[in-house]
Design goal:
The protein has 10 helices and 7 strands. The chain is of the alpha/beta class and 234 residues long. It has one domain: Rossmann fold (3-Layer(aba) Sandwich), CATH 3.40.50.150. Bound molecules: S-adenosylmethionine. S-adenosylmethionine binds next to helix 3.
């Protein structure tokens, strides 16, 4: 996608969603963002791992829609090192977007501008996730979404570093990767982790997750056997 701004103000929600889907990326957690943005008291949203902006675009558009429809305020902060991006580049669309814009960080910004999502973002921090946490006060984040490095060591370090900053939910992608799952369950305890399907997990650091909406999101088979869809038997 080039830098031309789409007239998203005149689009409906389906068209705005399609614009986000058209960006290069691997995002599969839209249902988690819908759930988190449906919580009225949540105002502070942080995304760790934004890559070329597909996931940020979805969160930004949901938050803008929430503001338009229900006048709910929000802050969206984005953190990405954009240093290891070549490790995530698997598809030609991402490769060409990075080349076109002179780097992944620039491509993220161009995609945000092109989808009229940039105005929803309060801050963009280019840093390692464990370093960026110092900018956030304890108990200041309602919703943290983790989609960065998938190793056990990195995931555990990030969850430990960010835990005190979160007063609401910690959610993330790639739960079915052994390192991510082990780290999430070790830091929070397996019983507190909700699996939402499509490799998405959530933990309520205070209070409780809404069990009925979550139950609808993952099938009974998936809830009994998280990640079964990645092994193609549910
Ligand atoms: C899988 S991609 C994120 C995809 C994005 N959420 C989406 O769905 O469009 C992972 C991103 O995390 C970033 N990253 C990896 N390790 C990181 C770390 N330790 N701290 C900050 N960012 C990191 C990479 O630069 C990359 O852009």
């Amino acid at each position: 996608m080039g830098a031309r701004a789409f007239q998203t103000g005149t689009m409906n929600a389906t068209e705005r969603r399609a614009r986000c889907d058209a960006l290069p990326g691997y995002f599969k957690g839209r249902h988690v963002y819908e759930l988190a943005t449906s919580v009225r008291r949540f105002t502070s949203f942080v995304e760790l791992g934004a890559f070329l902006g597909q996931s940020t675009c979805h969160l930004a558009q949901l938050l803008l829609e929430r503001k338009r429809a229900r006048n709910l305020a929000f802050e969206l902060d984005v953190v990405d090192a954009w240093a290891t991006s070549t490790r995530w580049v698997r598809d030609p669309a991402s490769v060409s977007a990075i080349a076109l814009h002179g780097g992944a960080r620039n491509a993220w910004a161009a995609h945000m501008a092109a989808t009229s999502s940039l105005g929803a973002v309060r801050s963009v921090t280019r840093a390692w996730a464990t370093d960026a946490v110092g900018r956030f006060a304890n108990q200041s984040v309602d919703f943290l979404y983790l989609d960065t490095e998938h190793t056990y060591e990195y995931t555990r370090a990030q969850l430990r570093a960010w835990g005190p900053a979160v007063r609401g939910w910690v959610c993330g992608d790639d739960y079915c990767r052994p390192g991510v799952r082990r780290a999430v369950e070790e830091v929070f305890g397996a019983k507190r982790v909700e699996y939402l399907g499509y490799e998405q997990f959530c933990v309520a650091t205070t209070g409780r997750l809404p069990s009925r909406p979550l139950a609808r999101l993952a099938s009974p088979r998936q809830r009994a056997d998280p990640c079964c869809e990645t092994r193609r038997h549910c």
